[in-house]
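Internal tracking record. Fields below are filled automatically when a chain is submitted to the structure queue. Please do not edit lines marked as system-generated. If the sequence contains nonstandard residues, flag them in the REMARKS field before resubmitting.
Queue: standard
Priority: normal
Entity type: single polypeptide chain
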Amino acid sequence: MNPLLRATLVAVTVATAQAAPNPFFVFDNGLRGDKLTTIDAQLDLVKSVGFAGLSWRTDAPERVKQVLEGSRQRGLKLFVCYANLDLKDGKCVYDPRLKEIIALCKGTDTIIWPNLTSKQFKPSDPAGDDIAVAGVRELADLCADNGLRVAIYPHVGMWVHRLEDALRLVKKVDRKNVGVSFNLCHALLDGAEDRVPALLDECAPYLLLVTLNGADSHPAAVAMPNAIQPLDKGTYDLPALLKKLKAIGFKGPIGLQCYNIKGDSEELLTGSMGAWKKMCGVLE
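SYSTEM-GENERATED OUTPUT FOLLOWS
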């Protein structure tokens, strides 16, 4: 492609993503492949496709620093950093690197995004609430000192199994910088598709971010391949979901979940970005 034409198309795509109702970022699990073995290559793809930024994970602090600096240089943003809190032996434990990562993210408005696991308590068991509340409050205070927020990540099969668990926990934590995320794929895997509108109404005051992806509506077998597809695939009514988010006044970031989606990353992300722009056009 002519370099000038390519630059023009990239500029238009980036402008479209930035003008969308919500900042649109991509999960780092969508940045995989032989051509994407370095952080710089991954960030270049994020930029060229037109995302506003990306997520990352609990990682070596020097790598997180590279993501932060590389994002800034490209006009991108590190929207969230995924982490794990584990309820174990009466305590809520987490990777010690997380404290340094939080300090590195100071002033960036990056959201710390923990799931909560436990071998001590079964999924959704409120018996673990006191331990979890103490741990999340500790994390919230660390984040508050650095101007950051915490969004609890509901994940099927983990202790915070569903959005209702996250809401229960956040209300007990009672910190201004702690909220929840709505993750479409996990709601579908939980069989909660018909409850999604009501769930969004309930979590609206606490909703900090949303993740979505293409998916099948009411599949015969609710499994990961049905629940996580490229944004331009599947039968689930994503425009209706975006309209609902608009109706509850959600203006936070929306992330593209890419877990275990096979194929060329550039092709898959470009197709998903095209679907995103079409959906945003419906909302205008």
